[in-house]
Design brief:
Layout: E1 7-10, E2 12-15, E3 18-26, H1 40-72, H2 74-87, H3 90-101, H4 106-119, H5 127-148, E4 162-166, H6 171-175, E5 182-187, H7 195-203, E6 207-209, H8 214-217, E7 223-227, E8 232-235, H9 239-260, E9 276-281, H10 287-293, E10 297-302, H11 316-330, E11 334-338, H12 344-349, H13 367-373, H14 375-388, E12 393-398, H15 404-423, E13 433-438, H16 441-445, H17 447-451, E14 456-459, H18 461-469, H19 487-502, E15 506-509, H20 517-525, E16 530-533, H21 538-545, H22 550-560, H23 566-579
Parallel strand pairs: 3-4, 4-5, 5-6, 9-10, 9-16, 10-11, 11-12, 12-13, 13-14, 14-15, 15-16
Antiparallel strand pairs: 1-8, 2-6, 3-7, 7-8
Helix pairs in contact: 1-2, 1-5, 2-5, 3-4, 4-5, 11-14, 13-14, 14-15, 20-21, 20-22
Length: 584
């Protein structure tokens, strides 16, 4: 038993790991809202003052976007997009303008409008909506800080391992800890899908959120313990408690060291069945990291980042310069370059298209279907990829393929590009492998036909699960239905693997499911050839692979494929690992 001096607080486990450090209290900005009457002759100037604050806030959010993009990649940078979307909401501006026109000062007008919007969320249940309310509050505070001329809170220079305690952390706050002595985060508010949680996971920093009042219970400089695995925080830890958690922390470090030793070992089972573990990346900056983690190449290079934070379409040379840097860094290993997976809204903002609002862009004009509708956008990227193919072992992959007709259509464009390059005497690898991502149920239905016309396939489980189960996993009302172990998903994966092998091609998986150690035995047992995962998951997946036999995995996979309930499937997986003493 721990002594009474310990204070245990329960919150939400946001990012795993143990952290021990001193409290760094990040206090909230205080604003005094006084209603002032603005004479008619000054109201236009007051409106301009509000507009200037909006533009300054937009610039700050853009800086945040760029910083997240540079540190964690485009998938995480979308977090900042939420704030920009709120800032651009025409209703927000219109209502503030109306109050200013009625003679109210900008600060008070914004306060009243935000208060009305936030109140509308009060009666809506669910963490998803609570987090959107927090987003609106964050945007409002940023605008108000610029109206009041305040510079905002900053992280001071830290001389020892610290744990940030705050009511809430904005994306800018969270990502700014990179390079500082920050051991963990703990906040009053937030949930599993909050920005703090998502970025903390990306930075691999332990975090607990939703603690309600921790910011009012701690003092700067106090010792505090974060347990990101259980969602617990310990204030005023006794020497006994401190020793207990230091032992847990040391165990955590020893596991990290143990995983480090695996980086130069092959990914093969105890009965010598070999698979390949590749990495998913967004930037060339990530290449040294994935090589250090033991990746044997890049299974998914997302090319969307070149399109962000700009108002014009990248030209062929920009594509070439970007890709060649990655290809040369990863050589002699292979790299699979995915053609852009963007929606038409992004290209409209660049002035190329005039695509109107799409009510459901995920089922709209995006990705490969966008390339087919506007091939001129696609061609410059294909030319660049073909040109870099002579610099290393390059593979090309099309995303969001829904059927055989699309495969043939994009390959026809590729063939035309090859002809043009030949006429221009520009060299490229004529044997460059071309594959597709399978992430749409219709593609699974005709995978036998698709597999005969490509060199490889890669399963994009994130979208495949969402589209198959009709579940938006960030929608709190249905997120619980997002189930990688749903029998339909497992049978789809098995069908893709079997049909790929019948056609004599390799089958990879690049979705998040590939990086979940809990699912490794099943996926491996179904015959998957290649795993492509986030850098942090390379070593854990390799450890699991090297801890079991392929024969056992195959037998277990055959068993679970006959089960009709995901709970029974998970129970069977747990039993499989437990009987072999494997910690997945």
């Amino acid at each position: 038993m721990f002594v009474d001096r310990d204070i245990f607080l329960e919150g939400i486990a946001a990012s795993p790991g143990i952290a021990i450090g001193k409290v760094f209290l990040l206090e909230e900005e205080d604003f005094c809202f006084i209603r002032k009457e603005i004479p008619k002759s000054f109201r236009e100037a007051e409106r301009k003052r509000f507009d200037d604050a909006i533009e300054k806030t937009r610039s700050e959010f853009t800086v945040t976007y760029n910083k997240i993009n540079d540190v964690l990649g485009e998938n995480y940078a979308h977090i900042a997009d939420v704030h920009i979307l709120i800032l651009d909401d025409p209703t927000l501006k219109k209502d503030v303008y109306k109050l200013i026109a009625d003679g109210v000062n900008a600060e008070y007008a914004l306060f009243k409008v935000l208060d009305k919007i936030i109140r509308s969320f009060e009666n809506i249940n669910g963490s998803f909506f609570k987090e959107r309310k927090v987003d609106i509050q964050d945007v409002g505070k940023k605008i108000l800080a610029n109206l009041f001329g305040k510079k905002g809170k900053k992280l001071a220079r830290l001389d020892e391992e610290s744990i940030i305690i705050a009511n809430n952390l904005t994306p800018a706050d969270t990502v700014s800890v990179r390079g500082k002595k920050i051991a963990g985060f703990a906040t009053d508010i937030g949930g599993k899908t909050s920005h703090t949680a998502i970025i903390a996971q990306g930075l691999a920093i332990p975090a607990v959120v939703g603690l309600k009042n921790i910011s009012s219970l701690v003092k700067a400089g106090e010792t505090i313990i974060i347990d990101g695995d259980k969602g617990e925080v310990v204030l005023n830890p006794s020497s006994k408690t401190l020793l207990h958690y230091k032992n847990k922390y040391d165990l955590q470090l020893s596991r990290t060291v143990e995983l480090e030793k695996l980086k130069n070992l092959t990914s093969e089972t105890t009965d010598n069945h070999k698979i390949f573990i590749f990495a998913n990346i967004d930037h060339s900056d990530e290449v040294p990291l994935i090589l250090n983690k033991g990746a044997v190449g890049i299974g998914l290079y997302r090319t969307e980042t070149i399109y962000f934070n700009r108002d014009s379409i990248p030209n062929e040379q920009e594509h070439f310069d970007t890709y060649s840097k990655v290809v040369q860094q990863i050589s002699p290993y292979a790299i699979t370059i995915r053609t852009f997976d963007l929606g038409g809204d992004k290209l409209t903002k660049m002035g190329l298209l005039n695509l109107g609002f799409e009510s459901n862009p995920f089922l709209g004009l995006r990705s490969t279907r966008l390339c087919l509708k506007y091939p001129e956008i696609f061609i410059s990227q294909l030319r660049a990829i073909l040109r870099v193919s002579v610099l290393g072992k390059v593979k090309l992959m099309y995303p969001m393929i829904s059927g055989l007709a699309e495969v043939r259509a994009v390959n026809a464009i590729l063939d035309k590009v090859k002809e043009d390059l030949k006429k221009e005497n520009i060299k490229f690898d004529e044997n460059m492998e071309v594959g597709v991502m399978i992430e749409v149920p219709s593609a699974v239905a005709v995978i036998d036909s698709i597999a005969k016309e490509v060199d490889f396939v890669s399963i994009g489980t994130n979208d495949l699960i969402q589209y198959t189960l009709a579940v938006d996993r960030i929608n709190e009302n249905v997120a619980y239905l997002y189930d990688p172990m749903h029998p339909a998903i497992l049978r789809f994966i098995k069908r893709i693997i079997d049909e790929g092998h019948k056609a004599g091609i390799k089958v990879a998986m690049c979705g998040e499911m590939a990086g979940e150690t809990k699912y490794t035995s099943v996926i491996l047992g179904m015959g998957l050839d290649e795993f492509s995962v986030s850098p942090s998951q390379i070593a854990p997946i390799k450890k699991i692979v090297r801890s079991m036999s392929f024969v056992d995995c195959k037998a277990m996979a055959e068993k679970v494929l006959k089960l009709e309930d995901s709970k029974l499937i998970l129970k069977e997986i747990d039993l499989f690992y437990e009987t072999r003493g494997i910690n997945a």
